[in-house]
Design brief:
Oligomer: single chain
Largest sheet: 6 strands, parallel
Enzyme class: oxidoreductase
Strand order of the largest sheet: 3-2-1-4-5-6
Number of domains: 2
Keywords: NAD, Oxidoreductase
Catalytic activity: UDP-alpha-D-glucose + 2 NAD(+) + H2O = UDP-alpha-D-glucuronate + 2 NADH + 3 H(+)
Bound molecules: 1,4-dihydronicotinamide adenine dinucleotide, uridine-5'-diphosphate-glucuronic acid
Pathway: Nucleotide-sugar biosynthesis; UDP-alpha-D-glucuronate biosynthesis; UDP-alpha-D-glucuronate from UDP-alpha-D-glucose: step 1/1
Number of helices: 18
CATH architecture of the largest domain: 3-Layer(aba) Sandwich
CATH topology of the largest domain: Rossmann fold
Strand content: 5-15%
Number of strands: 14
Helix content: 40-55%
Structural class: alpha/beta
Protein name: UDP-glucose 6-dehydrogenase
Length: 438
Amino acid sequence: MKISVVGCGYLGAVHAAAMAELGHTVVGVDVDERKIEALSEGRAPFFEPGLPEILTSASASGRLRFSTDMAEVADATVHFIAVGTPQKPGSHSADMTYVDAAVDALLPHLKAGDLVVGKSTVPVGTAARLAATVKAAVPGADLAWNPEFLREGFAVKDTISPDRLVYGISDDADLAATAKAALDEVYSKALGEGTPLVVTDYATAELVKISANAFLATKISFINAISEIAEVAGANVSELADAIGYDARIGRRFLNAGIGFGGGCLPKDIRAFGARAEELGRGEALTFLKEVDAINLRRRQRVVDMVVEMLGGQAFDKKVAVLGLAFKPDSDDIRDSPALDIAVQLNGLGAVVSATDPHAISNAKAKHPQLHFVESVGEAVAHAEIVLLLTEWSEYRALTPADIESAVAGKRIIDGRNVLSSPEWRSAGWDYRAMGRP
Ligand SMILES: NC(=O)C1=CN([C@@H]2O[C@H](COP(=O)(O)OP(=O)(O)OC[C@H]3O[C@@H](n4cnc5c(N)ncnc54)[C@H](O)[C@@H]3O)[C@@H](O)[C@H]2O)C=CC1
Ligand SMILES: O=C(O)[C@H]1O[C@H](OP(=O)(O)OP(=O)(O)OC[C@H]2O[C@@H](n3ccc(=O)[nH]c3=O)[C@H](O)[C@@H]2O)[C@H](O)[C@@H](O)[C@@H]1O
């Protein structure tokens, strides 16, 4: 199948390479010349495990190319839209200018029989609006919505072997059958392996995606709210999560309390969902998502307050080591990263923040050049009054007191992700604090 992917960021670059790896002929198009240059040379423009390998093998196969020229999509019959839908500045709504611009730029190159497939996360109602635009501009062309559920850090695996597929398709029976057949061919491998498929209307497909992210965000904020209570009650939120997680109706996954969720999706998606509900006159249905957001942001403040308290009432001029800047391990993505936010807040209080991360330093430096970035844990903790573990990269999870105690100025540590052993650190004489557990 000949496929184009418009937008080659964290989602689109992986999708393009994975589709080529599956045997399709793919062109990825992006307006960012540097990204396209890197991808064309077989280099991943961001850190994502497994992406370099499939970029190399798919490029060598001759089935994958990248371009900044939209005319290159002319050969393809299925066109994925994977551009960003960030939070609009000064608002909670999604900024739809990139999706609209991408579709407008695509229209002159579409032909009858082509299928435009939305992958970006969008406000409900977008697919119906864009389907009308596509059909009016190019008779015989159609649109489907095929939301994406990949997780950064596992993006290649999640794209090649998704846990489910969702097609939102036209209510015209003939168009719907053609769109479904095209998508079935795109995903023939996953479908052949028994991946569950939900075929539905546009609005449901759009809502499936945003509801999934809202549920995940709610689950994380739920356990973080409980961790606030556990902290004052002297309980252990990790053991509590294990215990409630044994109930299959609840499940243990996404019940890790800590400094909360960040990234380019969960935070902006719950806000955009609430904003869209208000536009639809049902704002009250999603008021709880404001609380989910507030609980989440409170976790960051809690760490800042804890640092000040542990440093005797003020952070000014105190050296603070920050381990982790990415919003989660195995990604270099710093969008709405709780770790980076905490580092910036402490810097604002006059602390001398020395921050490190295995892969996210250059992204963090570009956004917050005021912080002091170092390449290693050893440099970060040297003479630090306090150490903060904020992103649970495997090398930070494996830290022991012996690794760093001769370098620090004060044996204080905050385990923002509840991943270290408190008895081990305490018995080595550290003032060890976690998030909602002893
Ligand atoms: N990052 C993720 O893990 C996932 C993201 N999503 C959704 O996918 C969408 C994209 O997200 P990311 O890839 O993370 O964003 P991103 O910001 O990494 O990538 C977006 C790309 O689109 C390009 N772009 C913008 N306007 C364009 C245009 N007119 N023509 C061609 N390219 C254009 C940008 O240059 C950028 O490379 C968002 O709606 C997001 O919510 C959905 C599931 C997973
Ligand atoms: O729409 C999207 O872009 C994607 O958003 C999330 O994926 P992602 O943002 O890559 O990361 P997650 O693994 O969901 O983690 C999100 C945040 O929650 C935090 N988290 C996660 C789990 C947990 O138990 N506790 C917790 O604080 C992580 O540290 C991270 O900051 C969803 O998991 C994907 O299914 C979805 O496709």
